[in-house]
Amino acid sequence: MILSISTYLDYTLAAPSDLLLQIEAAPMADQVLLSAGIGLSPVEHFKRLPGEDGIGDRIWMRATGRLICDYRSRLDINRVTPDLHPILAMPLHALPGEAVRYLFPSRYCPSDEFQTFVTTEFGSLSGGARIAAMRDWITRSFAYSTGSSTSQTTARETFVQRAGICRDFSHMLITLARASAIPARMVSVYAPEIDPMDFHAVVEVWLEGGWYLTDPTGMAHMAQVARIAVGRDAADIAFLTSFGQVTLNALSIRVSADQPATGTASSRSPG
């Protein structure tokens, strides 16, 4: 599956500001960059930093007046997306270091408050079967409603309102997974067929064999998404973090998917 991505951002800055940008698809074993380029209006500082868990890049910038960003890339997505139901959870003492911190509550995911709920509602299930049941429950029970939440909404509030957008759905599943002692992290992705087209948030859970992608909104196919960044919750994966007042003038994202032509070779490299 070949993904073609085009992202355009236009901001006005009230004063000289430091900015942290995360919009580039990450090169990984299951999503190979075929081409990529990012164009920026003049900035006073530009430095790349590794993203959380070494996935993707963050870009530190300092800019004045206006920030315009034009990012384009093509990726070859070659990902196995198994059914979660038969996959076992790993014993906690066997978890690798990279997964341990995703067991704990975070700003938007107060998982310690949901332990009784997950035991009562999903206690007969374990591992991937429990994750799938919680994901499907969220998909059925919550309304996808633009404007129903804010940048401050936590999974606790989403649980009460039973409505939200992709970040809220993902916070909810992460919270329930962590309350079940299953590591879970948030993932920003590009995905075709998202309506309205925007940056999309999904979830990765750690089960036997590693990280597994899943989408509680049911909007994206995991075999077609391109990861941008991962983190504890939305605070870690924001596409732009501004340390100063900014105004968004325009945001445009286009993602299209095409099957590679028969007989065409594509390159592979380790993530």
The proportion of residues in beta strands is 35-45%
Mean pLDDT: 94
- The rough form would be described as globular
Tally of alpha and pi helices: 6
CATH topology heading of the largest domain: C8orf32 fold
Helix content: 10-25%
Order of helices and strands: EEEEEEHHHEHEHEEEEHEE
Structural class: alpha+beta
> What is the rounded Rg?
19 Å
> Which sheet architecture does the biggest sheet show?
4 strands, antiparallel
Q: Which residues form runs of ≥5 with pLDDT under 50? A: 261-271
CATH class of the largest domain: Alpha Beta
The count of domains is: 2
CATH architecture of the largest domain: Roll
Explain the overall architecture.
- The structure is a single chain.
- With about 270 residues, this protein is an alpha+beta fold.
- It folds into two domains: about 1-80 and about 240-260, Immunoglobulin-like (Sandwich), CATH 2.60.40; about 90-235, C8orf32 fold.
- About 20% of the residues lie in helices and about 35% in strands.
- Strands 3-6-1-14 form a four-stranded antiparallel β-sheet, with no helix packed on it.
- Helix 4 links the parallel strand 7 and strand 8 (about 165).
- The longest helix has 15 residues, at about 125-140.
